[in-house]
Amino acid sequence: MYNLQSIDNGNSHPHVGLFEKGELKSVTPLAQFQFDQQIDAIASSVGPSKNLQSISYIDLRPYRKEESFLDMPVDYEMTLGEDRLHQAYYIFKKAHPGLSLLIDAGTFTTVDFIDESGMKGGYIFPGVQTFLNSYSRGDKLPSLASADNFTIDFDIPHSTNAAIENAMKISQLSWLEKILSSHPIEQIYLSGGHGSLFSKALEDLFKGNVIFEKNLIHFSLYEIYLYLKNNNI
């Protein structure tokens, strides 16, 4: 097994995972991480490129082709974000039978479909906090902190805060329920800072296998690194 520095250069909180002999030992904010030049680094980047300017790392962009990424077929245009692509690859390589759903609940909540034939495509929704922050654009409306759960009080709200918070919860659960009822999902992978919110909601909405791994992007990058090493790429 290998040592590796996995870089998630995301929109909001870029960070680095440190693998020692295949085991994830730590996850550290990118700005605080001290890179070891003797250990390979690999990056998934949807954030500012300036964050990576002084870092030597494996750039995965050349491995994305029009209809594939490495050995995974991809049915999505070339604008697909690296974080979605790389996490989908991890799920593809696990070769679970049937259709998997990947929910990455970060700045935006991305929802992608993967099965043994490859990455099928997906959706981009406003993230939980992005949804709540949007209210600050209105006159005298507050920007609320994220909720602790998706439990909804279906009584008519009697305060601005309750009106906003319940609207967010209904919005998030509505698309989730619709997707689950429209597709034969066998398992769901959750990642991202708000993944735990969906994990609690899915206890009631979904009877299949749910895997919540907030560090999924780092395990995905390690899986990609293994493929590159094992195939001398």
TrEMBL record:
Provide the alphabetized UniProt keywords.
ATP-binding, Coenzyme A biosynthesis, Cytoplasm, Kinase, Nucleotide-binding, Potassium, Transferase
Give the EC number.
2.7.1.33
Major localisation: cytoplasm
UniProt cofactor(s):
K(+); NH4(+)
Q: Where in the cell is it found?
A: Cytoplasm
- GO BP terms in the entry: coenzyme A biosynthetic process
Enzymatic reactions: (R)-pantothenate + ATP = (R)-4'-phosphopantothenate + ADP + H(+)
As one GO molecular function, the record gives:
pantothenate kinase activity
EC top class named in words: transferase
**One Gene Ontology CC term in the entry:** cytoplasm
Associated pathway: Cofactor biosynthesis; coenzyme A biosynthesis; CoA from (R)-pantothenate: step 1/5
Family to which the UniProt record says this protein belongs: Belongs to the type III pantothenate kinase family.
Q: How does it assemble?
A: Homodimer.
The protein depicted here goes by the name Type III pantothenate kinase
Higher taxonomy? Bacteria, Pseudomonadati, Bdellovibrionota, Bacteriovoracia, Bacteriovoracales
